[in-house]
Amino acid sequence: MTTVKQCIDQKTNTIFSVRSSDPVENALIIMRDNRVRSVLVIDGGELVGIVSQGDCAIKVLLPHSNPKQTVISKIMTSNPLTVTFSNSLEECMAIMVHKHIRHLPVVENKKVVGVISIGDIVKNIIEHQDTQIKFLETYIKGHGV
Question: pTM, whole model, 2 decimals?
């Protein structure tokens, strides 16, 4: 069972964030430039929310609001669910499926240390399956079948 810590340790794990008082445009630029689908909202070193591409599209662009004038605090998800290093990726997946979310901030000692995405979980599952397949192939070949 892979833990959040093991997954985070394998990533470059740059934390992309904005302040709640920033315009939505800032979040969109960060998402575009870094090819990420969400950014954390951090004020004074404290996680206060998360904003996704979907939030920007549905709450700003579709109603024809101006992303330069709309502030993050108006569209962010406040007090997002978080996980810690000790959570398993299976627990993360269960939370994501149950809550219909794609990103979970990782917090240790009240400090944001990363983000686990549904993509990270899928990648881990595929790597685990590849390892199992290679083991079974070696086992079968080694036993003359």
Answer: 0.85
Host domain of residue 120: 4-142
**CATH classification of the domain holding 137:** 3.10.580.10
Residue 58 Ramachandran class (φ > 0 left, ψ -120 to 50 alpha, else beta): alpha
Q: Which residues contact 141 (CB under 8 A, 6 or more apart)?
A: none
Q: Identify the pLDDT of residue 97.
A: 95
- Strand 17-18 relative to strand 38-43, pairing: parallel
Domain count, the chain: 1
**Residue 74 amino acid letter:** K
* Residue 125: predicted pLDDT: 85
Is it the case that residue 143 has pLDDT exceeding 70?
no
- Residue 27 near residue 51, CB atoms below 8 Å: yes
